[in-house]
Design brief:
single chain, 250 residues, alpha/beta, Rossmann fold, 6-stranded mixed sheet, 4-stranded antiparallel sheet, 9 helices, 37% helix
C-alpha cells in the first residue's frame, strides 16, 4: 500500500540546501501499521509529509496503492491518503465549528450526503451530536484529536498518516486515542504509518518499526523486537536505553 524507493528531501538551494531525509526505502502492505521512530530532527515527519504530498521529494519515488505519485497530485490521489497532525488545537481552525471542519474535506473532494457523513464520522470517533456545533476551544484535547481523526477519515482514505497524534495529550487520554486508532484500523482495514518519540506507543499500535537517525533509515525491525530489546543497530539500542528513563549507573 505504501512503497518508498530511495526518497530524499532537501530544503533550500545551492550551498544553503539541507538534506532532511536521504535515500529512504521501505514498504507497508495493506492493513499493516508501520511506525517511524527517532530523535527530534531525524527526518521522521519529513518522510510523512513527503508521503502525504505536502512537500515535494527531491529524488526517488513514492508509490501508494500501486500508483507512483507525481509531484502535483490530483483529487483522487490526495483522497487516498490523509494525515492527523501532532497538535490537535493548532491543526483545527479556531473560528470554525466541528461541523464546518468536517464539511470542508467533503466540499473539496466533491462528496455529497454531508449530513449523514458528518454524523457517522462523529459517531465513529466517539463524539455525540452535541459536539457538532462547538468550536475547538470548547473541546478537551482528546476531543479535539478525535475531531482531527474524523476529518481525516471522512473522505474514506485507504492510508492514514499519524504525526505524533498522542504526544500533546494526557497519559489516560493517550490510551483512549490509541485504542480508538486500533479499532478504526480493524473496522476500516486501514493502512497506518505513525511517527512517534514514544517507543511504547509505537510498540502498542504498530507491527513493524523503522528507526531513523540524521535523515537516514538505519534499521527495520518488529515491535516485538523493540519490546524485548532484540534490536541490532547501536542507535536503536540507545533509543531503548533513553526511553527507560534516568539511570544513575549511566
Amino acid at each position: 500500500m505504501i512503497r518508498l524507493e530511495q526518497v530524499s528531501v532537501r530544503y533550500g538551494q545551492g550551498r544553503h540546501s539541507m538534506t532532511a531525509a536521504s535515500g529512504i526505502s521501505f514498504s507497508v502492505p495493506p492493513g499493516e501499521a508501520f511506525g517511524l521512530v527517532g530523535e527530534s530532527g531525524s527526518g521522521k515527519s519529513t518522510v510523512l509529509r513527503a508521503i502525504a504530498g505536502l512537500i515535494p521529494h527531491a529524488e526517488g519515488q513514492v508509490v501508494l496503492a500501486g500508483q507512483p505519485m507525481p509531484k502535483q497530485r490530483n483529487r483522487a490521489q490526495r483522497r487516498l491518503v490523509q494525515m492527523v497532525f501532532q497538535d490537535p488545537y493548532g491543526s483545527l481552525h479556531p473560528n470554525q465549528t466541528v461541523d464546518q471542519t468536517l464539511a470542508s474535506p467533503l466540499r473539496i473532494q466533491g462528496l455529497g450526503d454531508g449530513e449523514q457523513r458528518i454524523a457517522t464520522a462523529l459517531r465513529e470517533v466517539g463524539l455525540g451530536p452535541e459536539h457538532r456545533f462547538r468550536f475547538p476551544h470548547q473541546l478537551s484535547g482528546g476531543q479535539r484529536q478525535r475531531v482531527a481523526i474524523a476529518r481525516a477519515l471522512i473522505v474514506a482514505p485507504q492510508i492514514l498518516l499519524l504525526d505524533e497524534p498522542t504526544s500533546a495529550l494526557d497519559v489516560s487520554v493517550q490510551a483512549e486515542i490509541l485504542n480508538l486508532l486500533v479499532r478504526l484500523r480493524r473496522e476500516r482495514g486501514l493502512t497506518m504509518l505513525m511517527v512517534s518519540h514514544d517507543l511504547a506507543v509505537i510498540a502498542h499500535l504498530c507491527d513493524r518499526v523503522g528507526v531513523m537517525q540524521q535523515g537516514a533509515l538505519v534499521e527495520l525491525t518488529s515491535s516485538d523486537a523493540l519490546a524485548t530489546g532484540a534490536v541490532q543497530h547501536r542507535h536503536t539500542q540507545d533509543l531503548l536505553r533513553s526511553s527507560a528513563g534516568y539511570d544513575i549507573r549511566a
